Amino acid sequence: MNALEFDRYSIRFGDFQVLREISLGVEEGSFVAILGPNGAGKSTLLKSVLGLTQGLPQEGRVQISGSVRVLGKDPGEVPPDWMGYVPQVKGFDRSFPALALEVVVSGLRRSWPLRIRPEERRRAEAMLEQVGALHLAGRRLGRLSGGELQRVYLARALIREPRLLLLDEPATGVDAVGEADLYRHLEAYQSAHSQGAARVTVLMITHDWEAAQHHASQVLLLNRRVVGYGRPEAVLCHECLAEAFGHVGHAHSLVMGR
Question: What is the DSSP string of 51-65?
Answer without folding.
Answer: TTTTTS-SSTTEEEE
